[in-house]
Each structure stands twice: as C-alpha cells, then as structure tokens.
Amino acid sequence: FLIGIFSLASPIFMRIFGAKGTLALGSLGVVMFVAVNFYPRKYMLYAGSMALGVTSAPFFVAHASYMAFLCDSYSNITGIAHTKIVGVFYGIYTFILGVSKPVAFTISSFVLKGISLSANVDSKQNTTQSKIYQEHSQNNYTDFDYSLCGASHCPYMETHTEMLLQPKQNMVYVLMSSYTVITLTGFVLCFALPCLPSSKSAP
User: Fold this and answer.
1) Mean predicted lDDT score pLDDT of the chain
2) Closest listed residue to residue 115, CA positions, set 157, 160, 165
3) Tens digit of each residue's pLDDT (9 = 90 or more) over 193-202
4) What is the reported pLDDT for 123?
C-alpha cells in the first residue's frame, strides 16, 4: 500500500535528496526492515515494514536513474547507439535483482535445515509437542518431514502456529546478522557512487 502511494512521491525524493541520496535512503529502509527481526515485536515489525514501504519506490526510481546514466556513459565511450545498450544493461540488472531472492532463500534453507521436531523444546512446549506426536501416530505419518510445515499450514494434517517448533534463537541471529551485514554494505557502497549530473546543467 505504502509502496503504491510513495511511488507518486518518488520525484519529490529525487529532487530533495538526489539519485545518490535516494538510493542511500532506500538502502537504509531495507536495513531497518531486516534489523527489526532481531527484536521481533509487533510495533517494531510495523515500523520496519513502513520504512521499507515508504522508501522502496524511490529506491527503484534511483536505480533506474543510475542505469540510464550508465547507459549514456557507455554509449558516449563506445559510440554504440543508446537503444542497443539499454536492453543489455537492464537485462543484466533484472537478472541480478531476480537471482538475489533465490540466493537469500537458499541461505535461509541451509541455516534452518537442521531444525528437527524434537529440537529445542522447553517445558512450555511439552503439551504442544505431545499433541503433534499424538496426531502423528494416529495418522501414521511415520516418515513425515515437519520442516515442510509453514506458520499456518502443514501438508496432510491440521495444525496451528503454536503447534510448530521455532528455530533456535542463535540460528535466527546468525541469519539476521548475515542479512544485516549485506544490506549495510549496500548502504555504505551508495556513498561511493558518483553524483548524477543535474538536468539543469545539461546542454
């Protein structure tokens, strides 16, 4: 919702902060969205989601501005027509953007892969665990892989969020730390980018 609203405000962000500042601001929104998961309280998650929603649209507009700048620069250096370069550059950009999500999902899967049904259960979960085992035995799910279960869905059985075991907290911290470092690196690299020339100075 916020992405849709603030997409209309992207020109204002670009005019106030410039393409470089808008890119840094968008990166900071991603950092906040990831970092709040260290303390996942409802109000914190709402704040992180709002930060991401407000900055996402201007963030991608800044991406497009830098892509256009790169295309123009490469065209001037090589003499290749701008129209022939745009498709290649945006294809590479879209490929990198698309691959980043499967890479993130793969990292998450490897980190959380070792969680088993009986792992890391405290006394408060004993009753819940017995319910799971009881339903498991009644339905003869002898080889059922509970890692397939989501927050509110488990194939072939009825379950609820509170019936699913949570990952160990140190695993969550490792995962969130890796994502935070990656997003912070992107935020810092924004300041190494050149400032785009103002349209007012163009001939």
Assistant:
1) 76
2) 165
3) 888 776 444 3
4) 43
> Which amino acid is it at 91?
G
Helix (H) or strand (E) holding 115: none
Residues 6+ apart with CB under 8 A from 36: 44, 45, 47, 48
- Closest among 173, 51, 44 to 112, alpha carbons compared: 173
Tell me, rounded to whole angstroms, the distance of Cα 123 from its chain centroid. 34
- CA distances for 161 relative to 17, 51, 148, 169, angstroms: 43, 27, 13, 17
CA–CA distances in Å: residue 87 to residues 79, 94, 123, 146 = 16, 10, 58, 44
Q: Where are the alpha helices (DSSP H) in the chain?
A: 2-7, 10-35, 42-78, 82-112, 126-138, 169-190
Three-state SS at 157: strand
Q: What is the CA radius of gyration of the chain?
A: 23
**Rounded distance, CA 151 to CA 43, Å?**
20
CB atoms within 10 A of CB 31: 22
Angle, CA 198 vertex, CA 195 and CA 201 arms, to 5°: 130
- Structure confidence by residue, pLDDT tens digits, 48-79: 988 988 899 899 999 989 998 989 999 999 98
pLDDT in the model for residue 138: 52
